[in-house]
Amino acid sequence: MSWRCPECRSTALDVSVETWARLFQRCGDFETDFDDALDHSHEWDDDSPMKCRDCGHGALTEEFKVRESSAVCPNCHQPLPVEKFMRQDRE
Ligand SMILES: [Zn+2]
Questions:
Q1: Residue 2 DSSP code
Q2: What pLDDT digit, counting tens, does each position of 6-21 carry?
Q3: Distance from the CA of 55 to the CA of which of 6, 12, 39, 91 falls in 20 to 30 A?
Q4: Ligand 1 centroid to 75 CA: how many Å?
Q5: Would you kindly state where each structural domain of the chain is located, as residue ranges?
């Protein structure tokens, strides 16, 4: 599985994740610190916001997901992505 910008084809992407942070509370004020959390795991899925670092296009990760065809790259033997126009025709 892979992700690619549907607008410019870039793979330079940022994704919004859910993670744990330490909550500090003092005198009615509060702040969070990611480095002090005991659990540094983070999660994201098809409904997480994703943003292209090259063109700025933003959408849910589902829109960036590359549908792979049965065709295989002759060099690396990985499945080739189905082009955007083929996805739109199928839907
Ligand atoms: Zn882009």
A1: -
A2: 999 999 999 999 999 9
A3: 91
A4: 25
A5: 13-66
How far away, in angstroms, is 17 Cα from ligand 1 center?
19
pTM strictly above 0.85: no
Dist. CA 30 → ligand 1 center (Å): 37
Q: Which two tokens stand for residue 40?
A: 């540094």
- For 51-81, the pLDDT digits (tens) are 999 999 999 999 999 977 667 778 887 767 6
For residue 42, what are its two tokens? 């983070």
Q: Which residues contact 73 (CB under 8 A, 6 or more apart)?
A: 79, 80
Instruction: Confirm if 81 and 6 have CB atoms less than 8 A apart.
Output: no
CA of 1 to the centre of ligand 1 (A): 18
Q: Which two tokens stand for residue 55?
A: 């063109």
Helix (H, G, I), strand (E, B) or coil at 76: coil
Distant-in-sequence, close-in-space partners of 67: CB < 8 Å, separation ≥ 6: 81, 82, 87
